[in-house]
Design a protein that fits this description.
96 residues, 0% strand, 4 helices, 59% helix, single chain, mainly alpha
Length: 96
C-alpha cells in the first residue's frame, strides 16, 4: 500500500513540476522559497522506509541511482542526518 501511495504522490509532484516549467515565464521567480526550511518531524526510520520504497520501485533514473544519491537530497531539504542508512535499509528488508 505504501508503494502505491508513494508512486501516486510522486506522480502528482512530477506533473506539477512539469506544468510549472512549461508555464514559467523567463523573468518569473520560482515558487520554491529557499529561506523556508522544512524539518522532518517523523522518525528517521520513516524517512528511510520511504526512500527504500522509492529506490525499490526504481523511481529515480530508472533504477540507476545509488542509495547515497537518493538519501543526500532529503537529508539536505529536511535538515536531518540519516546516519547509517544502509543498515536501516537492511533492517527494513529483513522485516519483510
Amino acid at each position: 500500500m505504501a508503494k502505491i501511495i508513494a508512486n501516486d504522490l510522486l506522480h502528482v509532484y512530477l506533473e506539477d513540476k512539469m506544468l510549472s516549467l512549461e508555464t514559467k515565464q523567463p523573468n518569473q521567480k520560482s515558487l520554491f522559497n529557499t529561506k523556508v526550511i522544512q524539518n522532518w518531524t517523523d522518525s528517521k526510520m520513516a524517512l528511510i522506509e520511504l526512500l527504500h520504497t522509492l529506490h525499490t520501485e526504481d523511481i529515480f533514473k530508472n533504477g540507476a541511482s545509488a542509495l547515497k544519491d537518493i538519501t543526500i537530497y532529503p537529508e539536505s531539504i529536511y535538515d536531518i542526518n540519516l546516519g547509517q542508512y544502509h543498515r536501516a535499509f537492511l533492517k527494513t528488508i529483513m522485516r519483510k
